[in-house]
């Protein structure tokens, strides 16, 4: 049940932009998820368990695409830190 609470917290931030932080419909870089100490230990263990699979997937992604992902994350992180979120609006 606790995993569901974490997923709901992240999903809320995805759709609302985290209370003004982030773009609506996009995943906030630093979602605020509060966990108990025992949950943090479980998360660390799971991360170690899935690291080979994550590495295998990332090894198949072209390097140029990884660079785009990293650049996008960096720009979002800077915007989040400065609390300046630019929205591109398309005039129809």
What does this structure look like?
It comes from Portunus trituberculatus. This is Putative aarF domain-containing protein kinase 1. GO terms for molecular function: kinase activity. With 92 residues, the chain is mainly α. The chain has one domain. Helices cover 68% and strands 0% of the residues. The chain has three helices and no strands. The longest helix is centred in the middle third of the chain and has 24 residues, at 37-60. The N and C termini lie far apart (44 Å). Residues 1-31 have low confidence and may be disordered.
Task: State the low-pLDDT regions, or none.
Answer: 1-31
Percentage of helical residues? 55-70%
Give the averaged pLDDT, no decimals. 68
**What kind of sheet is the major sheet?**
none
What's the helix-strand series? Answer: HHH
Offer a quick outline of the entry.
Helix content is 68%, strand content 0%. With 92 residues, the chain is mainly α. The model is unreliable at 1-31 (pLDDT under 50).
Task: State the main characteristics.
disordered N terminus; 92 residues; flat; single chain; mainly alpha; 3 helices; Putative aarF domain-containing protein kinase 1
């Amino acid at each position: 049940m606790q995993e569901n609470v974490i997923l709901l917290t992240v999903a809320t931030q995805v759709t609302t932009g985290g209370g003004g932080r982030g773009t609506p419909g996009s995943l906030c870089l630093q979602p605020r998820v509060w966990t108990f100490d025992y949950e943090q230990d479980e998360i660390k263990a799971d991360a170690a368990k899935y690291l080979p699979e994550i590495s295998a997937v990332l090894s198949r992604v072209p390097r140029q695409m990884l660079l785009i992902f990293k650049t996008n994350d960096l720009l979002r992180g800077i915007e989040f830190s400065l609390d300046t979120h630019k929205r591109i609006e398309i005039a129809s």
